[in-house]
């Protein structure tokens, strides 16, 4: 048919949009609002300016909804974080679980991006608008967010790294809520994600000091050779001023690398709060960074990157919050909860609040590709997805069912191998 009388349009009838039935008329299940319990969520905005003031302050509604949204997202982050911590609590992590870990950690990162940008919505409120209802907030404060403190603890912020709140332990603000105090103390005692990740990194293959293919020994030799090469170039320089400068740089570089090669120096830096990871965990992170293109290190490297992303996004969220507070109340006004306000919040932007600080500093110890020690055939085989047809594991395939079973669950960088190559 031609013209506009055709009842069909691209294979669909004009009546298709009206097909179907209203399932609510034929089901006893829950409706949308009931399933989401929207009556509880949408009735939870109590405007104090409306109850206690002479007139309702319009922007107080935005203030409440925004902070309620924060708390809902904090709850989701805790839900994801607890599940990841549970998976890392096992002695070894199966490879299929690692995919789930990456998915959930990526979800946490995306939520933090949302929270970082959510501050901009509050910035549509002017300082004068805020002053209209700020007096009603006292003594409430964002510092009293139990979920955020739990989130910090479960990620791995240690009490000794915190800025003291009015010269007191942060838990003091929850003193009137015994259940909250118990929950916070439990979160401090349980293994944090940072601690669990360290245990995982400590199992990275190739760190065994007794094996001739030990990565750390080869890495140490490569660093020594690189520094010696640069020192020889400096010594050959005719310009005396430049020579002094280059030799000084070589000495500084040597001291920096000594801080990871000498376990006592490393532990002293940990004691001073300048590092977080154990020495062996730092070794594992460096090795994974160097050989991230190897099949078995690809996922671990993705996880390390996500941990830095999350740490970075939290810092950016803190910064946006600090700028918002300065914009709304200035730098000298006391916070509604009794803190120094802007000054206290600004102090949380320091490195002491970075949980995965050591991952950010890994670039300090990266070598040019040509100086990275090549993996031995033994290590290439261990880090490969495919089995080596000439490997001993293949040749020992007739040693019995139990041998095969014991070899099939070996750990690679904290991951389970799917082949028969034993670590």
Record keyword descriptors for this entry.
mainly alpha, two-stranded antiparallel sheet, two-stranded antiparallel ribbon, globular, 4 strands
How many β-strand runs? 4
Strand order of the largest sheet: 1-2
Q: What is the overall silhouette?
A: globular
What is the percent of helical residues? 55-70%
Main sheet characteristics: 2 strands, antiparallel
Strand content range: under 5%
Gyration radius over CA: 29 Å
Distance between the termini: 72 Å
SSE ordering: EEHHHHHHHHHHHHHHHHHHHEE
**Low-confidence segments:** 391-423
Task: Describe the structure concisely for a colleague.
The protein has 423 residues and is mainly alpha-helical. Helices cover 56% and strands 2% of the residues.
Protein described:
The protein is mainly α. The chain has 19 helices and 4 strands. Helix content is 56%, strand content 2%. The strands form 2 sheets. It has a two-stranded antiparallel sheet with strand order 1-2. Strand 3 and strand 4 form a beta hairpin. The longest helix has 35 residues. It is globular and about 80 Å long. The termini are far apart.
């Amino acid at each position: 048919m031609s013209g506009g009388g055709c009842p069909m349009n691209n294979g669909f009838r004009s009546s298709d949009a009206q097909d179907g039935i209203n399932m609510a008329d034929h089901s006893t299940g829950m409706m949308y609002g009931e399933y989401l319990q929207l009556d509880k969520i949408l009735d939870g905005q109590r405007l104090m300016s409306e109850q206690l003031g002479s007139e309702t302050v319009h922007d107080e509604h935005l203030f409440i909804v925004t902070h309620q949204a924060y708390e809902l997202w904090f709850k989701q982050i805790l839900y994801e974080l607890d599940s990841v911590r549970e998976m890392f609590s096992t002695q070894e992590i199966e490879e299929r679980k690692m995919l789930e870990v990456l998915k959930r950690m990526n979800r946490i990162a995306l939520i933090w991006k949302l929270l970082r940008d959510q501050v901009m919505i509050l910035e549509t409120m002017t300082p004068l608008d805020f002053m209209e209802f700020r007096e009603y907030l006292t003594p409430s404060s964002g510092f009293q967010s139990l979920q955020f403190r739990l989130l910090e603890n479960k990620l791995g912020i240690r009490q000794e790294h915190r800025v003291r709140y009015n010269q007191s332990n942060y838990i003091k603000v929850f003193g009137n809520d015994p259940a909250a105090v118990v929950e916070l103390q439990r979160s401090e005692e349980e293994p944090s994600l940072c601690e669990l990740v360290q245990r995982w990194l400590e199992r990275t293959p190739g760190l065994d000091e007794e094996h001739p293919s030990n990565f750390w020994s080869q890495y140490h030799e490569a660093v020594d050779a690189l520094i010696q090469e640069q020192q020889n170039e400096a010594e050959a320089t005719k310009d005396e001023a430049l020579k002094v400068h280059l030799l000084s740089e070589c000495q500084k570089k040597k001291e920096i690398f000594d801080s990871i090669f000498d376990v006592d120096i490393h532990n002293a830096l940990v004691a001073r709060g300048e590092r977080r990871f154990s020495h062996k965990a730092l070794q594992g992170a460096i090795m994974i960074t160097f050989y991230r293109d190897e099949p078995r290190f690809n996922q671990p490297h993705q996880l390390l990157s996500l941990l830095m992303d999350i740490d970075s996004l939290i810092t950016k969220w803190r910064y946006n919050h600090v700028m918002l507070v300065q914009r709304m109340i200035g730098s000298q006004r006391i916070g509604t909860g009794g803190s120094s306000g802007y000054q206290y919040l600004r102090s949380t932007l320091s490195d002491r609040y970075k949980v995965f600080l050591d991952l950010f500093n890994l670039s300090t110890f990266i070598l040019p590709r040509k100086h990275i020690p090549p993996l031995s055939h033994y290590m290439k085989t261990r880090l490969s997805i495919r089995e080596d047809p000439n490997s001993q594991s293949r040749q020992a395939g007739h040693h019995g069912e139990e041998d095969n079973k014991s070899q099939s669950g070996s750990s690679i960088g904290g991951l389970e191998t799917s082949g028969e190559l034993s670590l």
